């Protein structure tokens, strides 16, 4: 590495597995390595995006903080989940995707050496952005059990210290599909309240919940509206990955700083994409419920098909984890064998948390059940188990 800020960033691994699968150009390969989906975006979003291409106003840097209509829709969307109201003019900024929003927030709140608590496992891209922002990631352990994942509250308490500036929590979390319970959210909120720290809430998959679970937005908890910064995007819920549109919604006290960072970083968003994003947030026919039902069906199929293997059930999201180390196979080798012998592309969780490197991730958002029918046989062919 030529600069120190990159020394603790190993990458995310998904790119290498995706490139290897692409190079084989074999349509029989199950693409379980990357967060794509085959389910279509809302029709209204596609129509409005087509119209924006011919609209000269969309071919502009302005407005730097995002279209007014989109900020209104995003502020309303977050406010509805949180049971409060946000001012779209002063408490909402449009970002060039959710992860750009996360980075902008971290750059707005961290001094070099400040600590940020994340769950373990969590998305490597979140950990990497803490490093890029000059922060130090600390980890609260997620514990797998027969029904999914739970947050180790003792581990959370041990991770929060005098240098902690923020908790960065995603729900449903990726790659595990962990969804905090009410009690877990209250424990998270208590640390924020007691120590006066920020909660950065990655809500990219907020409504992608299984088993009849309901959204618990942390800003709805007592005292948390002024401590919670919500970052969302159209990528997952609305199946609009290629639009690269997200939003940051938070208390006015921090949003001017976020605005300054946003202007100094990506500057503005994808002009021809914002109208479509606003349409997705506004239409009654957003397709989210139907998409969640389909993703849950795929998840349930994989859990049943792989029931004799150490797969941990997700409570939402697009992916699940399998503990290949319990099978005596390192995840990197398990990934290599799966692609070579089973025609399954899957990413090892190296760099996705201190204890995450025992897991391999299966993404179920992009492969329909009829393509997954022989998944157990493919795994047997690859691993001999």
Explained architecture:
There is one protein chain. The chain has 385 residues and is α/β, with parallel strands linked by helices. 38% of the residues lie in helices and 17% in strands. The chain is built from 13 helices and 14 strands. The chain has helices spanning 14-24, 43-53, 68-82, 98-109, 124-132, 153-159, 182-195, 252-264, 271-282, 288-305, 331-342, 369-372, 375-383; strands at residues 30-31, 92-95, 115-120, 136-145, 148-151, 164-170, 198-202, 228-233, 246-249, 311-312, 319-323, 344-345, 347-348, 359-363. Strands 2-9-8-7-6-3-4-5 form an 8-stranded mixed β-sheet, with helices on both faces. Strand 10 and strand 11 form a beta hairpin. Helix 2 runs antiparallel to helix 9.
Helix content: 25-40%
User: Oligomeric status of the shown chains?
Assistant: single chain
Low-confidence stretches: none
Mean pLDDT: 97
What would you call the structural class?
Answer: alpha/beta
In the sheet with the most strands, the strands line up as: 2-9-8-7-6-3-4-5
Order of helical and strand elements: HEHHEHEHEEHEHEEEHHHEEHEEEHH
Whole-angstrom Rg: 20 Å
Tally the beta strands: 14
β content, as a range?
15-25%
The gross shape turns out to be: globular
Biggest sheet: strands, sense, closure?
8 strands, mixed
User: Number of helical segments?
Assistant: 13
Ends apart, CA distance between termini: 39 Å
Organism: Pandoraea vervacti
Protein name: Aspartate aminotransferase
Domain Aminotransferase class I/classII large: 39-371
GO molecular function, one term: transaminase activity
